[in-house]
Amino acid sequence: METFTNWRTWEQARAALTSQPIDVETLDRAAEAALRWHGEQRRPTGAPYAEHLFEALEVLVRGAGVTDTDVLVTALLHDTVEDTDATLADVEAAFGPEVGELVDWVTKPPVEGKAAKRAAKVAYLRRLRDAPREAILVKLADRVSNVQTLDRMPPDFQRRYHAETVTYIVPLAANEPWFAGWFAAWQQRFAHLR
Q: What pTM was estimated for this model as a whole?
């Protein structure tokens, strides 16, 4: 199972991307927007939030070989509407309707209350089955970034997130050979959580 942690900063990501047939200038703007919108946010592990965004980008480029600019921009912006003050209108104004639509597909709806949040999350995960391939690629890359360090989380979270990943995300990878292989290896590594 290949792990991804090489691109911790935009400078590292940009240096690696310049050798690819990728619109790096547009990604510069997306990285700048993501860094501005996410600011000083941290992941549950304490790492800067931006590392997760760059890691999702790295998964798509280095792992799955994706070079589509809209997909890569979406990877950098996939959590902005969900986790910052940015709106879908902000994303669309800056990066166009295609990126806006993809970000919308991978954004969980805001809901209050624990039971309502669980129900909304399940509905969101089920809805992904109908998402365009580009949105699915972003969600798969997002989940690769999240689950490769699952062992650093509390045991009850590990079990819940593992079950959610196996139930809803792994089936999305079935038509994407690189992701299917990666998640198969991941499931073996985390088989103790079944």
A: 0.92
